[in-house]
Amino acid sequence: MSTDTGSSKRIVVVGAGIVGVTTALQLQANGNSVLLLDPAAPGMSTSFGNAGSISMGGVYPVSTPGNWKQVPKMLTDPVSPLRIRWDHVLRNPGYFLRFLKEGAPGRVEANSVAMAAIAQEAMIAHRKLVALCKAEDLVRPVGWLKVYSSQQSFDKTAHEREVMGRRGVNIEVLGTDELRQLEPGLSPRFTHAWHQPDNGFVTSPLKLTEAYYAKFKALGGAWRAEKVQRFVTGPGGVKTVNTNHDIHTCDAVVIATGARAGELSGLLGDRTMISAERGYHLNFEVDVEDTTDGEVPLRRPTVFGDWGFVLSPMQDGLRMTTGSEFAGPDAAPDFRRIYRMAKLVDEVLPGVRTKVNREWVGQRPSTPDSVPTLGRSPRHGNVWYNFGHGHLGLTMSAKSAEVLADLIGGRDPGVDMAPYSVDRF
Ligand SMILES: Cc1cc2nc3c(=O)[nH]c(=O)nc-3n(C[C@H](O)[C@H](O)[C@H](O)COP(=O)(O)OP(=O)(O)OC[C@H]3O[C@@H](n4cnc5c(N)ncnc54)[C@H](O)[C@@H]3O)c2cc1C
Description:
6-stranded mixed beta sheet; 14 helices; binds flavin-adenine dinucleotide; 9-stranded mixed beta sheet; FAD/NAD(P)-binding domain; single chain; alpha/beta
């Protein structure tokens, strides 16, 4: 971890998801006095329910060339993997126009480069933090697998693999024998696969956030269950952070409130673009035929590319994640798609019987370009932003926390910050 050369500051970090907690830990470890504010307990919001991948190949944006052709399906098909709710588009037309524009080939390339600068440092940054927190057992070096049952289905990933290739992502295209060796429990219907061996797998995203939070607390940091409602500003920036319970004076404030970051940046007069892109999970209790140990016959998170869902063998059961649904953060969840996918588990993992023990929806904090918003407010010298990590918040959290702590500590983070600026839209 880097250490501060400047003097210690009183810093309020707003938001205790994986992004806020890694930021708070990094800043506290640098000698600052950090207060973390969130009405929810650390790690209990979107960071609770993801697929667990620390994705070194997280360099492919959501908006890609030709995306406009899928718009009618996205708007009308309730079980489409990528879905946009009409009312949300009507309330945020600027966001969706920008989202479509970001699909131009030149933009995809630039966005991919900006994503890579954070994602490709992800394992190094998490390894430092898990070593500090003695939580090494939570991150397994097992990679990330994608499987397909036809050449046609596999070929749809050609552009993604090309972009990854240009970023130098380590990809192994597997033959059927290699696939069987890697995951013997998978159905033989899968004839095509690719593997990203450098990805890490977090077997309990909640426990990882809790381990980082426990270290933050041990170093003297504190969390309070409070919701930030307003700021009092003066020359130099924010003077106090006012919550539903208290008023906190500070030298600096970090906004790490995920999909709701637009609410607080708006209060500060900083215009940005952020949308909730919802995703779902079902957690299964598993019963496996012909085995005595009941072990799930899957070793790593696996994407079933024909249908667009992921199965991850988590500590607390088998987790299915799916869906990419642009809707307001308070819209009612729609579990139709994921329950349809749930029927496929015993087809893709023969002999596995499942019983749902949890259904969950989370709000990915997504920007039109899939690039996080990271850096100083253009209006207030002591306000910093760290949000908008979309599909890759678990992955990017540790490195973006490092970058932000460098910036706040007056050090060069070694990253060109222009693509991440809050006012780029
Ligand atoms: C189905 C699914 C699968 C995913 N899989 C992966 C994966 O495999 N790998 C990966 O890297 N990423 C994955 N992600 C993405 C990842 O989970 C998110 O990017 C990440 O959790 C975002 O973290 P965050 O800390 O920004 O947001 P959150 O975890 O949502 O935390 C934000 C916090 O801010 C708080 N807050 C909001 N407003 C206020 C306020 N006014 N005052 C105080 N606090 C406030 C909220 O209560 C919340 O706790 C997945 C996401 C989903 C939905």
